[in-house]
Each structure stands twice: as C-alpha cells, then as structure tokens.
Design goal:
Largest sheet: 6 strands, mixed
CATH topology of the largest domain: Immunoglobulin-like
CATH superfamily of the largest domain: Immunoglobulins
Number of domains: 3
Number of strands: 18
CATH architecture of the largest domain: Sandwich
Order of helices and strands: HEEEEEEEEHEEEEEEEEEEH
Strand order of the largest sheet: 2-11-10-5-6-7
Helix content: 10-25%
Structural class: alpha+beta
Strand content: 25-35%
Number of helices: 3
CATH class of the largest domain: Mainly Beta
Length: 289
Amino acid sequence: MKMRFLGRTCLIVLSLLPAVSTQTDAWTVVGSDQPVIAEPGDDVILPCHISSRLSAVDMEVRWFRKRPDKLVHLYLNKKDQLGRQDSEYRGRTALHPSALETGDISLHLTNLRHSDTGIYNCLADDGGWDEEGQTELIVTALGTQPSISMDSTQGEQTRLVCRSEGWDPEPEVIWRDRDGNDVTSLSNTTLLRVSQGLRSVSSYIKIKQQSNVFSCLVRSKTPKPDWESKLHISSDFFPGVSGWMVAFFLTLALSIAAIPLLAIQWRRMDGNGKVTNCTLGFLPNLSIT
C-alpha cells in the first residue's frame, strides 16, 4: 500500500516537470519604449519582437489597437488573414516573412493618416503561451505659418495677435522682443481642437513703444520643424518724434560742421598745386528705417 502511494506521488511529480520546464523557457514579446514619430503619407515600421529570437513562423501574430477584435493585421496558419482586417488598414500593412523566422514581428504600415496615431499592441501566440507588447505611433501635423496682426480696441492697449492652425500634437507658442528676450510670460494663449482632431492656436501680447519688433514662434512638442513669424512695428505708429526727422537734422548738423574743414583742405591743396580726392571718414552712414 505504501509503495503504491509512493508510485502515485512520483507520477504526479514527473507529470509536473514539463510544465515547470515550459514556464522556465517562457518567452516574451517586446515592443518599442520610444514612440515612432512620422508625418501623414509616410511609411513606417512599428518595432516588435519575440525574446531569444524565437521563430514566429508557426505562431499566431496579431496586431490591434484598443480591442483585440479591431485587427490591424492578423497572421495565422502561416499566412496573412487579410479578410479579417479592419477596413481602415486594408492594403496598408505587412509582416516580413523572413523576419518571422528570427522572431521579428514588426509591422510595416504605409501611407500614414492622422487617424493612425495611437498605441499599437502586438501579440504572439504559440498555442500554449501568448505574450503581448506595445508600440506608440505619433502622426504629427505641422500647422500653418503663423500670421501676426494688430488688434487695437478703443480704450484698451494695442496688442499683437498670433494665429496658426492644423497642429497635432498640441504646439507651444513663444514670443520674443527685438533683443531676443523671451516675453512669453506676458502673453495669453488659447488652444482649440477643430476638425479631425487637429488644433488651432491663438496668442496675443500687449505691445509697448520701446519694443517695436516682435517674433512669434509656434513650435511642435515633437522633434519636427518650427514655424516663426516676425512683425516690425514702425515708430510712426506711436506718438513722438519722427525717426526720419532726427536723421535729417543730424546729417545737416554734421555737414555744416564739415564746411570749415573742407575750406582748409582746399587751401592746402591749392598751395601745393595738386588736386586730390578728399574723403570725410567721420561722416556716418545713416539708414532710415
């Protein structure tokens, strides 16, 4: 009786060994820890692979977004099951057959749309074990060139308004004065979500007479190009002494002061019987803006 009990115990222990061995050799699926950033119309690869370079040729490989049944791409029974694919991705996805042999289940996604932005899940299933990874895709939209206009309401201080639209993700606005100083803290910015998830931005800043050049930089928070616009505000817009009048009287004063020097130089040249060119190097080159 005792021997029979021990025999059953040994059988139970032995039967558990394959399961323990399988758990020890378990594999994982690894996505990308960095987002894939691209623009509409681009072709990208969403990285995902099985650890230990385990072959995925005989596995089920499923790419999906929010729900497993919303299929971006399905590979099953050693071939693509495109009939079960979501219509939004039809004809735009592919897995590389040779890459599957080394556990690379990265997805090729072509002709990107703004609606493709989001988290993508990659799942591999060998029939007894399944694992899942994630990769984020950001399809950026670089908005329009900022436009700057002047808004003057009666009874209120004049302000500049900077506008741009068609951004995603949310951009930031930076204002600078003519000396390059960041004066963004003096501005007020409003972001609005418009059609197709894109955003428009409007920012204004009150202007002062001593700062007559402003730049408005609308910058994407992703590493893509920026848009910048500048506006020069003429001093004539503000009451005060006209700039061209100052330049005129300064030039006139310098010319009058130079007359005695010209007369002395002429007498010296006349006495020597030579005629030479005379350049007044001290007269400034004035430009009127």
